[in-house]
Write a structure and sequence with these properties.
32% of the residues are buried. The longest helix has 12 residues. The protein is 21% helix and 26% strand. The radius of gyration is 20 Å and the shape is elongated. The chain is built from 6 helices and 15 strands. Among the domains are: 51 residues, RNA-binding S4 domain (Structural Genomics Hypothetical 15.5 Kd Protein In mrcA-pckA Intergenic Region, Chain A, Roll); 102 residues, Alpha-L RNA-binding motif (Alpha-Beta Plaits). Strands 5, 6, 7, 8, 11, 12, 13, 14 and 15 form a 9-stranded mixed β-sheet that branches.
């Protein structure tokens, strides 16, 4: 019910229940309890939960400095402030850390959020990453084949050089898994400093010309495309990735082509 009513994803809803923040008819509930939506009063943190009038699917350009949460105990700026005009409660699908910017999906559809963000799903996410001082072909190869982080190797990714900016290099990195601060940790492990990190696409949804702090509704085609991507087997050896215009890209070729730009 919590997921269907847009309160949170299934995983987050379980956390709310375990922490004692959910009541039915004034009684705290536990995992496995049930309720009748036609008769029972469901509350989270004392606030009555009602059926949303509409299912929302949003693409938000999260600026740097905002945390990906609906409220923050440290009184930091939250993405909830950027979608205040939406009449129903929406929440983030996945995360972007405070120092990163770019595309963030938001919704009040719990099933959709679970499908897109579940660890078993591998919807490709595209990032524009500025690193310094520079990058070698060996480092680029490791980004593609996997880097050992916290005792576990990252899944194969896509990486190519877009341009050289003096002592900085701009990369495009495509991830198929969603580990916490994955790109920053990968780069740190390889001796690279991330100067800027911007997510530009999630599956078929592109950031495009969206301005910082602004959002738009996803089209029906984009929602269908995201759900279709979530059904695919993640981490597959698919070298015709849409992020590269359907062209085959070898690591070395991508590195050399980028250097020439």
């Amino acid at each position: 019910m919590l997921a269907a009513y847009g309160v949170a994803s299934r995983r987050k809803a379980e956390e709310l229940i375990v922490s004692g923040r959910v009541t039915v008819n004034g009684r705290k509930v536990k995992l496995g309890d049930s309720a009748d939506p036609t008769r029972d009063v469901l509350r989270v943190d004392g606030e009555k939960v009602t059926v949303p009038q509409k299912k929302w699917y949003l693409a938000l350009y999260k600026p740097r400095g905002f945390v990906t949460t609906m409220q923050d105990e440290k009184d930091r700026k939250c993405v909830a402030q950027l979608v205040k005009e939406i009449p129903d409660r929406v929440y983030p699908v996945g995360r972007l850390d405070k120092d990163s910017e770019g595309l963030l999906l938001m919704t009040n559809d719990g099933e959709f959020a679970n499908r897109i963000s579940h660890p078993k799903q591998h919807v490709p996410k595209v990032y524009r990453v500025t690193v310094r001082p520079g990058i070698t072909e060996g480092q680029l190869t490791k980004l593609c084949t996997g880097v050992l982080i916290d005792g576990k190797k990252t899944a194969p990714a896509k990486a190519r050089v877009l341009e050289q900016q003096g002592e900085r290099v701009v990369l495009e990195i495509v991830l198929f898994e969603g580990r916490n601060r994955e790109i920053r940790k990968m780069c740190e492990a390889l001796g690279l400093e991330v100067a800027r990190l911007k997510r530009t696409a999630i599956g078929p949804v592109r950031l495009g010309m969206l301005r910082q702090g602004s959002f738009r509704e996803l089209s029906k085609e984009e929602v269908r495309g995201l759900l279709a991507e979530s059904k695919k087997e993640g981490g597959r050896e698919n070298d015709r990735n849409p992020a590269y215009g359907g062209q085959r890209k070898g690591t070395g070729a991508a590195f050399r082509a980028g250097r020439g730009r």
